[in-house]
Write a structure and sequence with these properties.
about 70 residues; about 55% helix; General stress protein CsbD
Length: about 70
């Protein structure tokens, strides 16, 4: 079970931040449906070559400051 919940509206905004930080990610890499957080985390871990903790930290940080453009 993922330790994070991301709504569709939040993901639309968070996706822009993630793409800005990791510009090599494609639309396919950032494909997400609510309830599929675990698959998203696993895929991002592979693509950015970082640990699960780092990916979770990055996503949570982006959600905490959703109105801010920084990640």
């Amino acid at each position: 079970m993922a330790e994070i919940t991301i709504s569709k509206a939040d993901w639309d905004r968070l996706k822009i931040k993630v793409r800005r930080k990791y510009n090599h990610l494609t639309d396919e890499d950032l494909k997400y449906e609510p309830g599929q957080e675990e698959q998203l985390i696993s895929h991002l871990m592979e693509r950015v070559k970082r640990s699960r903790d780092y990916v979770l930290f990055t996503l949570k940080k982006g959600l905490a400051n959703i109105d801010n453009n920084r990640l």
